[in-house]
Amino acid sequence: MSIAIKMPALSPTMEEGTLAKWLVKVGDKVSSGDIMAEIETDKATMEFEAVDEGTIVSIDVAEGSEGVKVGTVIATLAGEDEAATPAPKAEAKPAAAAPASVAPVPAPAPAPVIAAAPAPKGERVIASPLAKRIAEQKGVDLKGLQGSGPGGRIVKADVEGAQPVAGTGPVAAAPAPIPTAPVPDFGIPFEAEKLNNVRKTIARRLTEAKQTIPHIYLTVDVRLDALLKLRGELNKALEADGVKLSVNDLLIKALAKALIRVPKCNVSFAGDELRKYSRADISVAVAAPSGLITPIVVDAAAKGVAQISTEMKALADKAREGKLMPHEYQGGTASLSNLGMFGIKQFDAVINPPQAMILAVGAGEQRPYVVDGALSVATVMSATGSFDHRAIDGADGAALMQAFKDLVENPLGLVA
Amino acid sequence: MAEQYDVIVLGSGPGGYVAAIRAAQLGLKTAIVERENLGGICLNWGCIPTKALLRSAEVLHTMQHAASYGLAADNIRADLDAVVKRSRGVAKQLNQGVTHLMKKNKIAVHMGVGTLKGGGKLDVQGEKGSETLSAKHIIVATGARARDLPFAPADGKRVWTYRHAMTPSEMPSKLLVIGSGAIGIEFASFYNDMGAEVTVVEMMDRIVPVEDADVSTFLERALKKQGMTIMTGAGVEALAVSGKGVKAKLKGKDGKVSEAEYSHVIVAIGIVPNTENIGLEALGITAERGIIAVDGLGRTNVPGVWAIGDVTPGPWLAHKASHEGVTTAEAIAQALGNKDVHPHAMDKRNIPGCTYCHPQIASVGLTEAKAKEAGYAVKAGTFPFIGNGKAIALGEPEGFIKTVFDAKTGELLGAHMIGAEVTELIQGYVVGKTLETTEAELMATVFPHPTLSEMLHESVLAAYGRALHV
Fold first, then answer.
1. pLDDT tens-digit readout, B111-129
2. For a designed S-S bond to A340, which of A248, A258, A363, B368 qualifies (C-beta 3.0 to 4.6 A apart)?
3. B425 min Cα distance to partner chain A (Å)
């Protein structure tokens, strides 16, 4: 008597999964508790154990098949008393030969579920299914399009001519869709807040960055004493001008100058080309009430620290008031994010595409520090650069971190 | 004083009379000018009467195979005169229908030969004299006629065009059909079913050359099985007409010239637009080899003059002409200030084509070869009639439905079918294609059982390796 092994529901919300790997093959004997396969759910990869004893006579869903519905027969087991005669054709085949309820593996880019998700009420986009799919593939936002079909319906021709959602920079990498798998309701009280556009953009761009850019992270500890001392002196000297430099202003300058010194890190990965920038424009992360935004200090390496400070103050004020003009936050060749004021020791930031690096700066704190073989106390911060590994090799990233460290620890270079 | 209209339509075929109805619906004062029969070729001498003839042939064929349905029918014979009479009756009924539609829509019908005079003027030379009409807009919808062989013009006795073939004075015993497009193949099929010995000569390397290559192959095999002789890659070198028949010199694929005698010849090598002697040259209307150049809404290069149907670039099909008639009438209404109409140029890739030979052919969009040529990564699926319950119950297990998809986007690029009733099936895909559905919506559609239409579903599933009944 043969037993049909079905796709298990490995979590209460699981409706389908990916058959990541078979750990048994046709002819194998399994007994209760043996691990038969690895199955990926929306949350994790899980091991699938055999419940019954017997011999595998057929594997009906091939490894790597996606979207296998819970309950689909994935393999057949012959019970102990049955002479197991593995059918020769039962070797794992592409799911095409499997029961019809299984989506075939080679289907071209199975439309992500979100394509079919109805738009929220009130902003229904009237578009043909083909237009929707092409928009999905190209990363075009249908909402911004004028339809040329009957009744203003958006058709293929409208989407084909459309540009992908503009990145903040000149290089528009195809944004990946924001994964919006339905969030199950566990009965926990909550209030639904509609996303504002800043939040939507952040979500989309960070998802895109993390999914498409292979990040590498390089951390250095940087001694701040000299920089703090210089800052004190500069602030005293500039008091009459009403200028008060922050540590961050100096770090902006240091990063910009480091990028000029190590131009291999001042780049954008643009598909089939690498853009090497000859100017360092630093995007500085600012927490605004509507969400994170990154105003830009243009050509920061060429500017004096007092000017950087004045500009940064004005930009941050505008950012908090939501008054930044697009040219003030779109662009930049690298980013700086500083969470030191919150006491964060160290963190890894997500690259802001199309840029290829971001520097994450932690808190400056007094730490035991070894100088010339003797233990002493120094003010030290940890700085972590995240680099787009497609564009920047580890050694070049390390060279940038080295240059940054050198500039901060020998800060006269920042005012020279 | 010339009678003043908003729109005059010159020609009352399926393009012209539909344009006139739509113009009248939109409140335009409309006239139509026709030199012969309201309804044009389509309804009097084309689509409709041939379907009546082919229906007779189909019934005959079915009766001859009565035994395979468990029925007995003896002494079955065809009465060609009666068959033709029925066909003429059908045409007449529809002709009267058009007359009624003109009346109902208050469209002024002017019988006679029209000539454009410029400045919105149109002369009509009728049986009872001539008159001059005047309109803000004129739509040229004069259609097309059969192309003659230069060395053997049709005489109506031994050498026929479609028109002679439709009202034959006698039953051909041995028929040569030159050209295997829709018209040639339909008459070849009709006379073959009626009992003539039929030979089809096609210049291209396969019959019905606009169709998918798989369809051509299948049809050739089916027609040969029915006793037809098919010569592809072949040409007619000479025709010598005598009172008794026609001697034809045919050059085969191998270059060898053979001679054979036929009782009759049907020439179906294409059409010529009827654009001479209607005043187009004097107005300076741009045309190439008689085909009037138009934009997507039917505008010619001369303001106030529009053109639709067979006088414009192909495909030369009645339904294409009708659709253009509606679009152009709406564009004219818009030009005259109607803000509620929004004419859209039609997408020619969504125009279906049907051929009523036996077995029938229907198609829309790109063939598999054309799709590949256009650079698409193609996913194609085929489902055979033998896998469909209804087809077997009907006793029609021969044929297939093929679908061609863009593997990248899932766009339905084309569909090609051959077999019983496929001309009634193709519209399912045409609706889908016009709505720009992808394979996903087609797969998610429920098809009724038991119907031939289930094959539409299966073919889509087959393109994605998921067909259920093969």
1. 999 999 999 999 999 988 9
2. A363
3. 22
